[in-house]
Amino acid sequence: MIVFEDVHVGFGNLEVLKGIDIEFASGSKTVIIGPSGSGKSTLLRTINMFERPKRGNVFIDGVAISSMTNRMLCQARQDIGMVFQSFNLYPHKTVLENLTMAPIVLKHEKKEHVIKRAMDNLREVNIAEKADAYPSQLSGGQQQRVAIARALTMRPKIMLFDEPTSALDPEMIQEVLDIMERVAKETQITMLFVTHEMKFAEHIADRVLFLDDGIILEDGTPKEVFHHPRNERTTAFLGKILH
Amino acid sequence: MTGPFSLHNWQAWFSDWSYFAEGFLRTVYISLLGLFFTLIIGLIVGMLLCGRNRVVISICKGYMSFFQNTPLVIQIFIYYNVLPKLGIRLGIVVLGVMGLALYTGAYAADIVRSAIRAVPTGQMEAAGSQGFTYLQAMYHVVLPQAVKIGLPPMTNQAVNLIKNSSVLAVIAGGELMYCADSWSGSNLIYGPTFVMTGVLYLCICLPISLLARRLEKRSTRNV
Description:
The structure holds two protein chains of two kinds.
Chain A: E1 2-11, E2 14-24, E3 29-33, H1 40-47, E4 55-60, E5 63-64, H2 70-77, E6 80-83, H3 95-107, H4 111-124, H5 140-153, E7 158-162, H6 170-186, E8 190-194, H7 198-204, E9 207-212, E10 215-220, H8 222-227, H9 232-242
Parallel strand pairs in A: 3-8, 3-9, 6-7, 7-8
Antiparallel strand pairs in A: 1-2, 1-4, 4-5, 9-10
Chain B: H1 7-15, H2 17-49, H3 54-68, H4 72-81, H5 92-118, H6 121-130, H7 134-164, H8 176-187, H9 191-220
C-alpha cells in the first residue's frame, strides 16, 4: 500500500503538489489525469523519490520512503518499476541485456534464471524475436514494450507509467496500450498510470484521479469521474480531451 | 651533394640510429605512462565536475584553468627547478610523466565532463529507477556511453601528449627530441636529424590520428 500524508513538493518558489493525502491499495490500478503542469508526473515521481517532498511523508507498506537514506532508497526502488515517456532504454545494451542487467548486478540473481524470466517477459510483450537487437533498431512502440518488460523483469511490487504513449506515433499507441492492459489485468502489481488514454483508463483502472494545480480535485471510479464529474474543472478538462 | 642534407650527413645519422631508437622507445614509454595517468586524472576530475559539490567543482575548475592556460614548458621548469628546493626530488621520467599527465589531464577532464553531459539525463533516471546507486549507474550505464562519445577527442589528446613529450628535451628528458637536440649539437648535423625525428614522431602519431578519425566516424553512426 502506498500512503501520501500531506505531501508538498516544490521547485524553488513553485509549489507543484499542495498537500496530497491519498492511499493506493496493493494491487490497485489507478489512472491519473489532469492538465499539463498540474503535478501528475510529480506525484508519480514522488513515489520513487525522484522528487523529494518539502513537507509530508510517503509510506510504502508502512515504511516512510521519504525519510530513507540514499542507500536504502536504491534498495527500495528495486521494487518500484518505472516506464518513461521517452523509453530510456540503455542504447549500448541489447534488448535482452536491458532486461537482465539490473537483476544480475543489483539482486545478484543467477544469469540463466534472469535470462529465462526476461525471455518470458519479452514474449509477454510480443517482442521476444528482438532479444538480440539494439534499441536503435526498434520502433518507438517496440522500445516502449521492451521498457515495460524491463520493469517487469525486476519483479516489482509497484509500477509507475509516466505518459507511456505520449512520445509514440499514433499507429504505435494501440500496441503499447494493449500490452499495458494485458499486464495490468494479469498481475497483482500496484500500478499507477499518467495518461490521457480514456478508453484504456475505463478498461483497466479501478480508480481515476483528476489533478489540477497540485490538488486532487476528483477521485473515483472511471465511470464516476468520466461520466459524472463533480468538479467543473474536471468537466471542462474532459470536454477538451474528449472532443 | 653538399649542404644540410648531404649524403655524408645522412650516413652519419643512420650510423647512430640506435641512439635515436633509444630516445624513440623512451618517448613511447613516457607517453604511455603519461597517457595512463592522464586518463585517471581526466576520469576523476571529469566525474567530480558532474557532481553537485560546489567546493569540489571550484577546485577542479581551478586546476583546469591553471594547467590549460600556462605553457607546459613553464610547468616542467617549475617541477624541475622548484620542487628540489622544496625537498621533493623526482627522477626525470617521473617528473616528465607527472608534467604531461597534469597538463593533458586538464584537457581530458573537459572531454570526460562533456561526454558525460552528452549522455541523456533519462539514462541516469532509468538506472536510478531500477535501484542503481550513482556510482553503479555511472559504471554500468553512463560511462560506457560517454566513452563512445569521448573517445575521438581523447585520442586527439593522446597525439598531443606524445608531441608535447618533446618539451622534456629542455630538462634533459632523454626522449626522442632530447636525443635529436643533443646529437645534432655535437655533430652539427641538423637536416637529417630533425627530418628523421619528425618521421619518428609521425610513426607514432599518424596511426593514432587515423584511429581517432575512424572512431569519430563510428561514433556519429547510430548506436
